[in-house]
Amino acid sequence: MPITKGFRTLVEEAMAQVTTYSVDAVKARLDDPAVQIVDIRDVRELAAGTITGAFHAPRGMLEFWVDPASPYFKPLFADEGKEFILFCGAGWRSALAAQTLQAMGMTNVAHIDGGYTEWLKQGGPTETLEQHKAGKGSQGSKG
């Protein structure tokens, strides 16, 4: 069966429906207690590091982790006072994930344009997997 709607169209539709922040906009809010950065990349991608302070919620489990009716529910996602800003490698999966969470009823969700690739390019603060586990990150460039 041929694909009638490709991934690019799905991503474009999602981008039109979700809040998208630039790297600079997110960097400016890193110390805001009302913001939770969420890394939705596969666990194997974490070897390249992550955004300092990000919570890892793999894309394959995200819907289960945010739903209180799920046996996999993570209470972090019940905090309606937080804005959950998702990111992936390039901003495609995070746009689709944010769209899905909105369809589930979440209004406090957004994503980072360009994902981790753009974050690194613009010198956003990162931490290694070891630092993440220990709760210590690097500051990267503040520019």
Number of helices: 6
- Unreliable spans are 138-143
Work out the oligomeric state of the chains in this entry. Answer: single chain
Mean residue pLDDT: 92
Helix content: 25-40%
Shape category: globular
Radius of gyration: 15 Å
Find the structural class using helix and strand composition.
alpha/beta
* Distance N to C terminus: 49 Å
- The total of beta strands comes to 7
Spatial strand sequence of the major β-sheet: 1-6-5-2-4
Major beta-sheet overview? 5 strands, parallel
* β-strand amount: 15-25%
3D architecture notes:
It is a single chain. A five-stranded parallel sheet has the order 1-6-5-2-4, with helices on both faces. The protein is an alpha/beta fold. The protein is 32% helix and 16% strand. It contains six helices and seven strands; from the N terminus they run αβαβββαβαβαβα.
Structure at a glance:
The protein has helices spanning 7-17, 23-27, 62-66, 92-103, 115-121, 129-134, and strands spanning 19-21, 35-39, 50-51, 55-56, 83-87, 109-112, 126-127.
Secondary structure topology:
Layout: H1 7-17, E1 19-21, H2 23-27, E2 35-39, E3 50-51, E4 55-56, H3 62-66, E5 83-87, H4 92-103, E6 109-112, H5 115-121, E7 126-127, H6 129-134
Parallel strand pairs: 1-6, 2-4, 2-5, 5-6
Antiparallel strand pairs: 3-7
What keyword list fits this structure?
143 residues; alpha/beta; five-stranded parallel β-sheet; two-stranded antiparallel ribbon; 6 helices; 7 strands
